[in-house]
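ok so I'm stuck.
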Amino acid sequence: MKRKTQYVLALAALAVLAIGGSAWAKVYTFQATPLTPGATGNVDAKTDKTGGNTNVTISVDHLARPTLLSPAANEYVVWIEPQDGSPQNQGVLRVGDNEKGDLKMTTTASKFRVIVTAENDQHPKAPSNRVVLQTEVQE
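replied:
not stuck anymore, here's the structure
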C-alpha cells in the first residue's frame, strides 16, 4: 500500500511539472556585435494561454548609452522580425547610467528574430545596419 501511494504521488508530481513547465518563459541570450562587444542581455518569451500571442521581455546589461557610441546615436530601437515578415518597430529601449534597460512587448509571431539597433530617430521605418544585439526566438 505504501509503495502504491508513493507511485501515485510521483506520477502526480510529474504531471504538475509537465503542465506547469509549459507555462514557463523560455530564455534566449542576446549576441552582442562589435558595436557594443561588452553588452549582454536576455529575451524572455512566453506564449499566452490561448497560444495566439507571445509575450516578450528583453533585459540588457552593460549597454552604453547610444550617445556614447562612435558615431553617436540618439536611441536604441527594438525590432521583432517574424520568420516570414518584415521587421516591426517595438519601441525605444531606454538605457540608464547603470547601463541597464528593459522593454516589454507582445507579438503574434512564434518564430522571430529580436534586433536592437542604434538609431538617430525613435520611429525609423526600417532598422539601420547598426545592430548592437540580436537573437532568434522559437516558441
